[in-house]
Design goal:
mainly alpha, globular, 11 helices, ABC transporter involved in vitamin B12 uptake, BtuC
Length: 294
Amino acid sequence: MDYFLALAVGGLLSGAVYALVGVAFVVVYRASGVLNFSLGEWVSIGARTVAAGMHGAGLPLFLALAAALAVLGVLAAAFNRIVLRPLIGRPVVAVVMATLALGAFMRGGAILAIGDLPADIPFPLTDDLWWWGDVPIPPARLLASGVAIALVLAVMAFFRFSRAGIAIRAIADDPQAATVVGMSVTRYLTVSWILSAGLCAAGGVLWTIDGLGGFGMGLVLMKVLPVVVIGGLTSFGGALVGAMAIGLAENLVAGYVDPWLGTSAASVVAVVLVLVTLWLRPAGLFGATAVQRV
């Protein structure tokens, strides 16, 4: 029983960080319908920028994170203004290719700008384990997961109660009607991209602290897309549930099935869950089914 609890706790802790990155994806998709395939690079650049601020400029963690938020916010606003705005009304594949090109640009730029600096993020917590009964819990992972959950809930509250969040939801539902009543569609879409970039920076730090690894396109394909497909592409709560399900399933399979098979079956758990979800509920567990009048 203790072994099961240890696996379950570890999976849920990882799932919390998965959820934060998944929500960063949902923010942009819900606002504009854009599938951001450069999300893995946003997370990576966020983490690398924080590490560069700490190692290169000697900044403490919170100041380095603030600097990374500013850098990614400017980059998000520039990408939305220079690249995405001229693509309004163009085929979806053009926007997808633009995000892929941005990811390649960010990877190359990071190597040139900060590639020689350490990528680790020192975290001011002891390495001593905390214990829940007989279940060991690393304090850094627990704090990272707690912060991730808090940020997910904050985003949900932002979209539900704040004026900007309600405006973004209205624009997503009917951009033409939102324009008629005086809403600035371009401004609020920029806000959504900046918000997503900020979540990516925070997610990159927590991802590094949690020791999960694997940035770039692999993160999008193996973690983020399964999370949002299972939960629903437009649902923040769905991203949280999907992330927890994937984190829990991966850890349980790694603990019980991998030793028996002698191979890494945990790496395909997310794919299996996605296929089952698409078979039973194509819109995801909490995704909205499109209704069209004919």
